[in-house]
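Hello forum,

I keep getting stuck at the same step: I have a sequence, I want structure tokens, and every attempt I make locally crashes halfway through. Rather than fight my setup again tonight, could one of you with a working pipeline run this one for me? It's a single chain of 216 residues.
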Amino acid sequence: MNLLALIRTACLSFFLLPLIACAEAGNQADRFQAGVHYALIAEPVKTRNPKKIEVVEIFWYGCSHCFSFEPQLHKWAATLADDVDFWQSPAMWRENMVVHARAYFAAQQLGKLDTLHQPIFDALNIDRNPLADEAAVGELFAKHGISDEEFKKAYHSFAVTSGVRLADQRARKYKITGTPEMVVNGKYRISARMAGGTGQMLEVADFLINKERAAR
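Reply #2:
Ran it on my machine without issues. Output:
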């Protein structure tokens, strides 16, 4: 290739590459749409750490879809960048769900959430133990080394009561319609129905995280 041809190729590449990049960005922007693949939250909800991009999964221990989604969700969460704040929040629109929410926050209060989170899921979805009341939850905690005194102190603590109340308020502000659902930065709500499945929820979440990151 002679010098003139090299110059022409270099010039062509110089003009084409930005066009290709713009086209790819456009395709990415069109991939997921508000009102189709995710919902806009009319009144954005304040995040717990404004310096980071927040992702919250609203779940229920008794939800079989949440149970199946859990391993995939945590595998995905482990890949998130440091600028993302991922956490979970229990849903509650029935009395038994309040019991399960208290179990979640009690485990968290005891510093045993990593130990007890999956066993609570397993009790409801594999063992068919409904964990219908405080006593049943206490028995499960006891199997994992938590004394009755420790359990009751945590279960009835101010921190747990406040956690339950705030989680319920948050879910109402998000306009949660079921579980599992994900909320990105208090602005966008993702459901399996809109996204096309739980796996696709993570793809939409990645898209919205990048959207928020670019806006910063």
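The two ends are 45 Å apart (CA to CA). If your local run keeps crashing, start a new thread with the error log.
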